[in-house]
Write a sequence for this structure.
């Protein structure tokens, strides 16, 4: 059994680091819709990579970084229309992916596997990419913890302290986009949002400090993923939806507790 | 020493002039109240003073520098109602944010000492480890004042510091502001501020009418009240 699930357990550990930090930042910065937009828009990068025959990881990373910069610009410049514009990027990104796939010869069943993901199919090269992105996230949070927290609370005040809050926000969205790329293979475009927000939403209710929120969120993410992998292995069901359902039940239970 | 100098300031949004020919000066350690009706341009003026908006015409100097250049010496206190209460953040974390600087990534011992000192002075040290969500409106406003003071500002700019606070809390906040030994500009809709020891009152309604001297002296200042504040103050304070 271990041979079959070892990579998925390693992936869970690496993903839980990103869930802890980026997931918590997504929740406290209220950027769930933006994350959804980048995640769905990343399908454009996957389609482009398949059309060009290039590396999916590198092409999708470049594509989602561009999306993150566009979304940062839109949300800063047009705050009153940001929800509609986020929806537009969401749909346009996916449409680009579908067009490129339809232009690519042959049936691209692999592309569709990115929509729902499968943590049991994670390969060594995916683990290496996850490790690289986790390192970047960890270095960023060590140096930028105080700034990220201040940005989440009061972006205007951060600007007054001489710090470029818009640049910091754009950097945070770029980190979010890279986190999405590292997760699509395992979790899938459609379910990423749930796995990145549910642990943080539960953790937020029971913690007093952002640091504790990140730790609790990471532990919950790991428990949900490993639990989902074991259940899906024994019952021969799809792992990612199992993980999301476990997380969803935990969220409901946490909401019931005052 | 001149702390704030605003000369011939004009600001236009799309085709409409929001502020026209605003002029005033404020000396070091003086206290100015900016009052006026909603939509009269108070918030716009505040944003220009903070360097968030650029005027179409005119000049602003804060301790001889432009607003953007003087941000290090400005302490800004926004309204406590502007912020999410769900954030897992303690009072101490918020106050420390006042010590953030451009090339500074970590707080040192001196920053923590200063934050403790300010919390002690404002008599809210007991709230240090509380989540912002668990505080009253007045306490939240005091936390934002502490965050501004911890940066050791020369100029304190406050936006509606008594809004959404119960009357005893309002009095406490106004007493505090009055006691600070720095230059202060308070934008307020609360007419009680006019009865405090302010050095200047600016009534902003597109243009600025400046009242010099200590708090409004009625009936001596009845003319100011009748001519400029008639709709704003009604008869509550000026006895019109």
């Amino acid at each position: 059994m271990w041979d079959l699930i070892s990579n998925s357990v390693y992936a869970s550990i690496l993903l839980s680091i990103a869930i802890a930090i980026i997931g918590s930042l997504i929740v406290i910065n209220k950027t769930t819709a933006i994350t959804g937009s980048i995640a769905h828009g990343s399908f454009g990068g996957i389609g482009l990579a398949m059309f060009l025959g290039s590396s999916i990881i590198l092409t999708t990373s470049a594509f989602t970084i561009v999306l993150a910069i566009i979304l940062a610009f839109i949300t800063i410049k047009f705050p009153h229309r940001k929800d509609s514009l986020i929806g537009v990027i969401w749909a346009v990104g996916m449409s680009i992916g579908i067009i490129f796939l339809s232009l690519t010869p042959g049936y691209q069943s692999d592309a569709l596997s990115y929509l729902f993901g499968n943590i049991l199919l994670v390969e060594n090269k995916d683990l290496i990419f996850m490790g690289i992105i986790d390192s970047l996230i960890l270095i960023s949070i060590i140096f930028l913890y105080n700034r990220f927290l201040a940005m989440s609370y009061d972006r205007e005040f951060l600007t007054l302290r001489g710090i470029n809050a818009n640049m910091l926000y754009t950097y945070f969205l770029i980190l979010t986009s890279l986190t999405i790329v590292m997760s699509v293979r395992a979790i899938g475009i459609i379910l990423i949002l749930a796995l990145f927000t549910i642990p943080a939403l539960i953790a937020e209710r029971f913690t007093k400090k952002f640091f504790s929120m990140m730790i609790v969120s990471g532990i919950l993410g790991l428990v949900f993923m490993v639990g989902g992998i074991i259940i899906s292995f024994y019952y021969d069901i799809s792992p990612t939806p199992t993980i999301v359902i476990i997380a969803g039940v935990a969220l409901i239970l946490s909401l019931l507790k005052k | 020493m001149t702390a704030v100098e605003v000369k011939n300031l004009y600001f236009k949004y799309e085709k409409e002039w929001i502020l026209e020919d605003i002029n005033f000066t404020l000396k070091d350690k003086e206290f100015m109240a900016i009052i006026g009706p909603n939509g009269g341009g108070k918030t716009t003026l505040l944003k220009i003073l903070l360097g968030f908006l650029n005027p179409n015409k005119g000049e602003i100097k804060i301790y001889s520098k432009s607003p953007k250049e003087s941000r290090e010496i400005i302490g800004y206190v926004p309204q406590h109602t502007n912020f999410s209460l769900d954030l897992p953040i303690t009072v101490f974390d918020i106050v420390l944010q006042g010590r953030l600087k451009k090339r500074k990534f970590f707080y040192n011992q001196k920053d923590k000492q200063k934050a403790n000192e300010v919390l002690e002075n404002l008599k809210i040290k007991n709230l240090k480890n509380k989540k912002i969500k668990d505080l009253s409106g007045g306490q939240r406003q005091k936390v934002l004042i502490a965050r501004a003071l911890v940066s050791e500002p020369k100029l304190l700019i406050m936006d509606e510091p008594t809004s959404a606070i119960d009357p005893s809390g309002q009095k406490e906040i106004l007493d505090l502001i009055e006691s600070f030994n720095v230059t202060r500009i308070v934008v307020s809709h609360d007419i009680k501020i006019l009865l405090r020891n302010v050095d200047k009152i600016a009534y902003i309604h597109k243009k600025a009418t400046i009242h010099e001297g200590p708090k409004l002296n009625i009936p001596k200042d009845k003319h100011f009240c009748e001519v400029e504040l008639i709709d704003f103050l009604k008869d509550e304070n000026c006895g019109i």
Notes: The mean pLDDT of chain A is 93.
